[in-house]
Specification:
Length: 154
């Protein structure tokens, strides 16, 4: 089952309403916001990182960047790096840029930046670079009950 199918099934099972958009393939947060017609700040950027010897998903506003020093402290790790494209595909079945912010679908730990909580809605690629979903942020937080910290920077 594809990541998109797993995600859609999870949302449907939990009665979460969403807006679905199919669009041209996007690679960057800026491109995604443009094709969705949304403010980049509501984009939820999901990234897979290797923290010491463990993979973790982090999610932050697409308008922001990671403060690596803060993130290392929060995760209490010495080494932190982005997963390689091959590792992202192995862990999620998605190409980088297509990973949705639902770590539970991939059996990964999840850490969410406070920048996500500030918006009523969040929009994200839904397992493929050509599919996007938009949901209420409160529904996401209620469903996933993520650890929320502040690790973003301009």
């Amino acid at each position: 089952m594809s990541a998109f199918s797993k995600l859609k099934a999870f949302l449907d099972k939990n009665n979460v309403s969403y807006e679905f958009k199919e669009h041209e393939a996007v690679r960057t947060s800026e491109e995604a916001a443009a094709v969705r017609g949304d403010d980049i700040r509501i984009g939820a950027k999901a990234m897979i990182l290797k923290a010491d010897d463990k993979f973790v998903m982090i999610v932050l506003s697409a308008a922001l960047r990671i403060d690596s020093k803060k993130l290392k402290e929060i995760l209490n790790v010495k080494k932190l790096r982005f997963a390689t494209p091959e590792e992202v595909i192995e862990k999620t079945g998605c190409e980088p840029g297509g990973v949705p912010p639902f770590a539970n679908v991939f059996d990964l730990d999840l850490l969410v930046d406070k920048s996500i909580v500030q918006n009523e809605y969040m929009a994200f690629n839904a397992g493929e670079r050509t599919k996007s979903l938009k949901i209420k942020t409160k529904n996401y937080l209620e469903l996933l009950k993520p650890r929320i910290e502040y690790f973003s920077t301009q």
